[in-house]
Amino acid sequence: MFPERTGYIIWVSDLKAARNLDKYGSVHYLSRRMHYVVMYVNADRAEETMKNVRKLPYVRKIERSYRNEIKTEYSKDVQDKTQYYGL
Question: Which keywords describe this protein according to UniProt (predicted)?
Fold first, then answer.
C-alpha cells in the first residue's frame, strides 16, 4: 500500500534555498543550527532524484540514512542478570 521510502541527510549551505528540496521528496526535518535536511524519497527513484539534488548549488554533501537497516527486533538469548543485583 505504501511505497518503500529511503532517507537521506543533505548538508546545505543556504537554508532558505533548502526549502526548495520539498519538490524532490518529503522534507522531514530542517536543522537551522547545523545546516542539514532530513528527507525521504521513494526508493525506486532514489538514485536519479539524488543525482538531480547533488547538482544544486547549495548542496554540500549527501548521506544515506541507514535507519531502515537497523535491527529493531530483539531476542532474549542472554539470561537476565538484573535478578542477581538485589538490595
Answer: Cytoplasm
3-state secondary structure at position 34: coil
Element (H, E) at 50: helix 46-54
Name the pTM for this structure: 0.78
Q: Residue 78 has what DSSP assignment?
A: S
Q: Does residue 86 carry a pLDDT above 90?
A: no
In CATH, 5-67 is 3.30.70.80 = yes
What confidence category does residue 87 fall into, taking pLDDT thresholds of 50, 70 and 90?
low
Angle formed at CA 67 by CA 45 and CA 80, multiple of 5 degrees: 155
Amino acid (one-letter) located at 43: A
Take residue 55 and report the three cell numbers written for it: 547538482
